[in-house]
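#struct-pred
JK: can someone run the complex with iron/sulfur cluster? inputs below
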Amino acid sequence: MSAGGFHGGLKLPGRKEAAARPIRRCPPPAVLRVALRQHPGEAALPLVAAGQSVREGQLLARAVGPFGADLHAPCHAEVLSIDESGDGLLCLRPTAEDGDAIRLPLLDPDTAAADAIRARIAAAGVVGLGGAAFPTADKLAIAREAVILNGAECEPLIACDNRLLQERAEAVIRGGELLRRACGAGSLRIAIEEDMPAAREALLAAKADAPAFELDVLPARYPQGGERQLIEAVLGIEVPRGGLPRDIGIGVFNVGTAEAVWRAVAEGRPLTRRLVSVAGGGVVEPVVVEALIGTPVAELIGAAGGYREDAARLILGGPLTGRALADDDHGLRKGDNAIVVLSTAEIPETRTSMPCIRCGACATVCPARLQPQLLWQFGLAGQDSRLSDHGLFDCIECAACDLVCPSHIALTAGFREHKLRLRGEALERAAADAARERFEQRQARLEREAAERAEQEAEQQRRLLARDAVRAALERARARGKGPP
Ligand code: SF4
Ligand code: SF4
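RT: done, structure tokens with the ligand placed:
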């Protein structure tokens, strides 16, 4: 075991009440709302039609292009509707379980080759369950030296990884071993925080019968669960700015992803359900819920006892990194790890922001080693190139800088806006460049065709002139009586 550290960060109150209760199963809702785009790539292509009956585990939609993932039916159901606009939405009405679920062919987890494990993970539609939902098979395509399972659930209120480890530690370890073999890594480590004693005990208890791994128990610190921060805390290695963990041979996978990999390989189960923390002062009984993908947020909150009277704000994700939801219709996606309901008393007071006093507190806590106050100034001055040069795109939007700023400046929201704007402008430039290239290619083609036509006409003209010249010569010869009869 080790106790490392990473640059910056904060000690925050964990508020992990949900970790103390057993995982609660949410029954299938009246209607499942399954998004066709649950991953960074394009929306998956539906393979079913409205009115069709589907069986649990049946392939509903096929991955399209890079970073896409297959989608499977979470239960026996009837397809109610398919909307392919935006992120796309399949609505399913669960039906009685009359017939077997569809499973992928069994694969021996002890002997399966690396490429067979990767193919199985792709076929089961497994993506990263820590939030990013990046397709796991794509991440495994690059060889690694070490795999770290990320159980360092550092954001307040989120507790699904903690509870998963307490109840299903062996499946997580075995899934981690499959991930290690699938990318050819030499070692497997599992990282948790020191305020997860029950998870630690469960991992140690499972260790005797499970594949070898090293357990890292880290001091609880936010945002330790970020990939770069975790690597720094566990291995003492800094991922270079602008680089990725794979550049230094490290693969970081969420512990929930490891469990999903184990189920996909050993049980042939596609990813059709996940654990989600339902927490905050606005729910009756904070708890980790196991629910089918597509379950509306309203049902998840119902599984946690419902809303309290003073429920005031609904957040998808953690209280610091999540986004506000306007209603509770949202269907659970593979990457959704938390639903937070804040009570009136928990909503941060709106404070008027003041000018920066250059105290440097934001830079001290920034885990990405940025100078947030400088980025803020560059943003105000419209100095876009300096924003990029000073690492705007390395900002992980953890909001640690906001928490310590005595001037109450909404730094993270500003950085998020600048990133969106600059990415949008880059996309527009790329689209304009592509359009200009297409225009120039078309012009060149039209000019080439016009030149070819002119050349053909000139050739035709030359032939006509030559023919006329021959005829004239013949006429002259005939006139002189010397020509052919
Ligand atoms: S939000 Fe960005 S700038 Fe602020 S502390 Fe986190 S990584 Fe640093
Ligand atoms: S913490 Fe706030 S006031 Fe202090 S330097 Fe950073 S932005 Fe300025």
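RT: quick notes.
The two ends are 113 Å apart (CA to CA).
Residues 356-362, 372-373, 376, 404-407, 409 surround iron/sulfur cluster (ligand 2) (CB under 6 Å).
JK: thanks, will look after standup
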